Amino acid sequence: MDEYIGIVKLFAGNFAPQNWALCNGQLLAIAQNSALFSIVGTVYGGDGMNTFALPNLNGRVAVGTGQLAGGGNYDQGQTGGVESVTLTSNEMPKHNHQLVANTTLGNTTAPAGALLSVPAAAVASSGDEVTVTAYASTAATLAPMNPASLSLAGQSMPHENRPPYLALTYIICTQGLYPSRS
């Protein structure tokens, strides 16, 4: 059965069968592939005088051309996307980091590994017991907490940005039926 010149298919082998070529971006001579060139042109590269390029689908997923529902557009031969992404704080969903405290009396002055808690009574230099106020009911004078009171989270490392995948070989028909326009 003959295929249309320019059709792209997935193939389970690691070679291109007769009358097919790998979709790996290779340059072909126009003189030896004029029918395919008349379909593909220089959309994928080449100088258009002596050479043209085949689509390069190595490590890529094919996407249909045309208008997107959201208003964007995919043009023939357009490439995009990235293999890994590092999110910035502007790209993360809004969220809170809750500051938690323990309701028992404090028993240490070292914050490492400890939680805020109900302050224990302090002793003034005169020897009298003094009550320590832990919270104020108004926000008249705000002061930032020591930056060391909350530690940073995350490592700013890029993460994988692909769903599970199976690598197959894309091939393009170089010899066959010339497709008629409808």
UniProtKB/TrEMBL annotation:
Say which domain of life the source belongs to.
Answer: Bacteria
Q: Which Pfam families match?
A: Collar (PF07484)
Which stretches make up the Phage tail collar domain? Answer: 6-61
Annotated InterPro entries: Phage_tail_collar_dom, Phage_tail_collar_dom_sf
What's the protein called, per UniProt?
Phage tail protein
